[in-house]
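FIELD: query
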Amino acid sequence: MKFADSLGKISNGDWNRHFLTKAGDLLLTTSTQARLALSTILGARQWMLKGAVSVQNHLPSAFFSRWSQVTIDALLTSVSLYIACQLRFEFDVPQPQRGVMYTWMLLLPILRPAMMWSVGVYHMTWRYFSFHDAMRLGFGALLSTALLLALRIGFYDVSLLSNPIGVIVIEGAIFLPLASAVRALRRLLTEETLLSTGDSTRLLLVGSEAVLPSTLHQIFHDRNVKVVGLLVPSAKRLTGVRICGCPVLGEPRAIDRLLQQRMADLIMIADAGLDCIGDIVSVATHYGIEVRLLPSAANVMRGDVSVSPRRRSSNRVERVLVVGGAGYLGSILVPMLVTRGYKIRVLDRLLFGDESLADIKGHPNFELMVGDFRDIQSVVAALKQCDAVIDLAALVGDPACAVNQQLSLEINRAATRMLIEICKGYGVSRFVFASTCSVYGASDYLVDELTIPQPISIYAETKVASEQLLLEAMSQDFHPVILRLGTLFGLSPRPRFDLVINLLAARAATLGKITIFNGEQWRPFLHVKDAARAFVTALEASSDLVSGEIFNVGDYRLNLQLSAVSKKIADIVCAVDIENVANGDKRNYRASFDKIHTCLGFVCEKTVEFGVREVFEAVQSRRISDFTASRFNNQLVTQMFAESASAAQSSMRALAKLAV
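FIELD: result
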């Protein structure tokens, strides 16, 4: 009765409150214990992964190669077959069956990797093991198990091959989880390495879904940078997904929220074609976070937009990059610029060697970088800290360009586009481009800069295309100027004897006979030293005068018919026989030089007679012993380069292979 009376004293409301209080206390205690248990588990996981990552980082790179994967799968096959036999016979394998087990432990580790190789299992990079890769792995393992069953049926009478069907099935069921677990562990360790930033720079990567995987593979080689997350346009369906082990955190518009959390030290934009670049730069600047643009070769070749970093506060040109500066014209121009106080960096592949720059090699204001103009990494490295670019890099001349049309298009047009985009990205404002008067083709009239080009050769076509790219790129921050040069002549530290005046003068000195093709045709001629002076003039002129302008470079006195050139040579070199021959060369043009005379005040100083004399004396005195040597001929050197393996090694060729 007392118990009942005590219960009666508790109202229904008090009873409910009492029950809820006790239940709440129980849940709170349980939740606290669960959190402690979870924290302990996560701590243990972190400790184990940290140790595993440390071990992984000390393993040689060969351990993670494709052949290493094959070896590990072979070992797992042997292990799984041994375990399968033990399970099938309850850990007491009969003596006759042991021979069968050992035979298949030798054969199957060869057959299975071979079958898996045939279906592309080893074409994947196993540290980025995905569900798709797991499906391919399962198919390869199933195929090898099916082959084992077929051999079991076909060779049943062969005692050493009569593996029980139960062993075959169990072995396949064991191998697949083991192989998947090894690959999943490798991916887990890779992700842990990427997300354990330590003292490394925390990188937030922005790019399209198509571009990010290749970019991440490049970044993974830098141990000082750790990718903390990815921002992908239209990422609603990808948020939370991992690309190459890195989590997609959202769309680029989430960057403000992420930077509020101080999640990154560096933002890298991996796709130069994104529309959100301006917003990203603006937000990052507000938080004081550095932004870098990392355009892919595909971005550059497509002509995607790019973002310029902080602009220079002064328009003064101090450091100039001369692309192709070790060539015929560059070897005259570079010392001239150094003498005038500029800091000069030359990017050149040195197909003709570096002897042409020997006189200034030790100068403190001169730097030589050996690299291919078509390689984006070489161009990016060469452009750092430069204020202006002089682009002389090209396969020069119709015969040289005709050797390999693809190579000519890469060097004379596609690489120019890449150089323009990288210049804009670095804030390089002055760009002086070497073009040619041969863009005019054939004309019976005096041609000027307003004459519509009519190129009749690959060389001229590529120059017209490059000119158009430059004019389209012109802006208030990018000032291209185009110099259309006449046919060059004269000596330089890197001589050429595939030029008409130089070749005729050399033959007159050695043979006493010259041959003139199409003597009635006109050409505008230009001494190589005057050409170099023209580049200096264009570089130092006000951007208001030269930005987006085209200038014919030459002199009316040097507009000459080829027959007139032969007569000038005959006046200097006595007893020369002249033979006139006609061929299919249709080039015929005289150029107007009023624009460069009036706008820039440029006039030529060297005459044809001066050039003939210096070439004649160099050949006759044996300072140049054999003017027919291949190193003096652009066409022959281009032929050798085009046939070499290095001709195919460039960003353009790599991009073309990816596109196939």
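FIELD: remark
The radius of gyration is 37 Å.
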